[in-house]
Amino acid sequence: MVRRFIMILGWCFTIACQAQDTVTVNDSWIQAAPPTAKVFAAYMEIVNHGDKPLTLTGISVQGFERAEIHHSTIINNMARMNKVDTLTIAPGTTQPFKPGGYHIMLINPSHSLAPGDKLTLQLNFAGLQKSAVFMVKRAPSGQPQHHHHHHH
Ligand SMILES: [Cu+2]
Q1: CA of 99 to the centre of ligand 1 (A)
Q2: What are phi and psi of 37, to 5 degrees?
Q3: How remote is the CA of residue 111 from the centroid of ligand 1, in Å?
Q4: What's this model's pTM, rounded to 2 decimal places?
Q5: 104 C-alpha vs ligand 1 centroid, how far in Å?
Q6: What domains lie within the chain, and their CATH numbers?
Q7: How far, in Å, from the CA of 10 to the mean position of ligand 1?
Q8: pLDDT (tens digit per residue) in 46-57
């Protein structure tokens, strides 16, 4: 009994308790846009498997001037986007990034992206970093389209 307990602890330290395993990124994709587009929206789900809050503090990406965390809201029937500095994900919860809500805004590309292209984004959390591959694709029909209005 005691030996089994120690084995579980050892397994925990070597595998399960590493920070990289406390966060998973699912369904990561970038919405295709015309070749002249100056902004692209990226969507995903972030799952916090850990027992501590996880705070997203920024996004690093190559081939763009910068990336920002945005939140879309509808005010007086107008789609508005607000830049968000940090986003905290409670332990054991999933934070969706989807059209009409939170999204990652990729700004000023050095070259255009076409459907089928893949791009690696690095998600910077307080205390850990996580890379995820995003596939460029067209928005599923019936989903609200991302509005490229900027009000900064
Ligand atoms: Cu945006």
Answers
A1: 10
A2: -60, 140
A3: 19
A4: 0.80
A5: 7
A6: 22-137 (2.60.40.1890)
A7: 44
A8: 999 999 999 999
